[in-house]
Amino acid sequence: MTRSNVNPREAAEERVNELLGAEPERAGELRPLTQQPAARIERATGTQAAANVLLAVLGVLVVCYFAKLILITLLIAVLFAFMLEPAVGLFERFRMPRALATGIVMLIIAFLLYLGGYYIYAKTMEFVEQLPAYSQKVHKIVDRYREKAQKLEQTTQNVNPAPAPDKNTVKVTQETNWTDYITNSLGTVTEGILAISFIPFLVFFMLTWQEHVRAATVMLFRMENRNTAYVTLGRISKMIKAFMLGNLFIGVFLSIVTTIVFYTIGLPNAFVLGFLSGFLSLIPYLGVVFAMVPPLLAAFGQETAPEILVIVLTILGLHLFAINVLYPKVLGRRLQLNPLVVTIALLFWGWLWGAWGLILAIPITAAMKIVFDHIEALQPYGAWMGE
Q: What is the pTM of this model?
């Protein structure tokens, strides 16, 4: 073919194909306009998957926020069910039906709670009767600090005198609507009481229908995923048992040591106060504050400054010992969560659910890690949460 017979357009297309390393098109073949590289398709698929995960997480958070009363009630019932499971198993060894064994255990727990509540009520009324004797010393301490505060305020005013008030200024004071406040408070208390009333029934049915619920839950998954679901549920069950038993052991240890110290310094009702202080100290972060309130209230009017200092140092020292030594040794290895994840979980669930979120944060996070470890796409997140 001579140069005069070559179509200039075809020559230009062949030159472009040679520069791009592409094969020339065959005659009559059309090149698709929507052709995309495989890498771009994979990138789009990954972006869509990440967006779906983000939307799912946001959906779960919305449900957790608006249904927190129901979810908290269910989770507390689950913790109680796992805590009572060994007792139910003990009665089953005597060839009792599981429903009968569960009913007996529930009645025993209710009786013990009644005795404990009656004893605490009696001691509380005794403390209330002694309040006039305590109030005198409390007033003296408050008056002493009030005088110091007034002297400090007068000194500050002498150094920086306040400007004279403008006579033409009108002060507007907003009145507090106590009716709305009391109504909202009563509504919250009523919802809490209603939720608490469901816990015994939930615990009973969780214990009697345990095997059925577990088997039915596994059947919700596809055949190839049922074994993984069964193993995951088993690990979550062991984790919750380890969490409850570990907290029980730590609470008993703290209660015994605290009771011995309170009894040694002559604190009234040392056994009750030691028990309350020991188990209140189990609450993450805020536990050390809650644990100090009962013994310090009992110490006013009877103890001197050295004994009060002993109470504060004992509770603070035991709390730090439990957080830094007992929790890592007893719970850390079984839950397999690193301290950063635990702190973030406490911060997040405390913000979302308040005080109950602080109590439930660790078992929820540990259960999430177990689920992540058994899903291939989420295993990197489970590894990041681990030690």
A: 0.68
Q: Which two tokens stand for residue 186?
A: 């009563």
Whole-angstrom Cα distance, residue 238 to residue 115? 31
H or E segment to which residue 100 belongs: helix 98-129
CB atoms within 10 A of CB 319: 22
Q: What is the pLDDT of residue 280?
A: 85
Query: Which tokens sit at 254?
Result: 């703290």
d(CA 24, CA 15): 10
Question: Which helix (H) or strand (E) is 303 found in, with range?
Answer: none
Residues of the chain with pLDDT under 70: 1-46, 49-50, 127-128, 130-145, 148-149, 153, 155-189, 300-305, 332-333
Calculate the CA dihedral of residues 131, 137, 140, 144 and round it to 10 degrees: -120
Give the chain's end-to-end CA distance (angstroms, integer).
75
Q: How far is CA 235 from the centre of its chain?
A: 19
Give dist(CA 100, CA 120) in Å, integer. Answer: 30
Q: Kindly report each contact of residues 264-272 with a partner whose C-beta sits within 8 Å and lies 24 or more positions away, as own/partner.
A: 265/303, 265/307, 265/310, 265/311, 266/303, 266/307, 267/295, 267/298, 267/299, 267/302, 267/303, 267/307, 267/311, 268/298, 268/302, 269/123, 269/127, 269/298, 272/119, 272/120, 272/123
What does the DSSP assignment read for 194-227? HHHHHHHHHHHHHHHTHHHHHHHHHHTS-GGGHH
Cα–Cα distances in Å, from 54 out to 33, 58, 195, 345?
A: 33, 6, 31, 18
Q: What are the tens digits of pLDDT across the range 247-297?
A: 888 889 999 999 998 888 888 778 888 888 888 888 777 788 888 888 887
Tell me the two tokens of residue 37.
């590289």
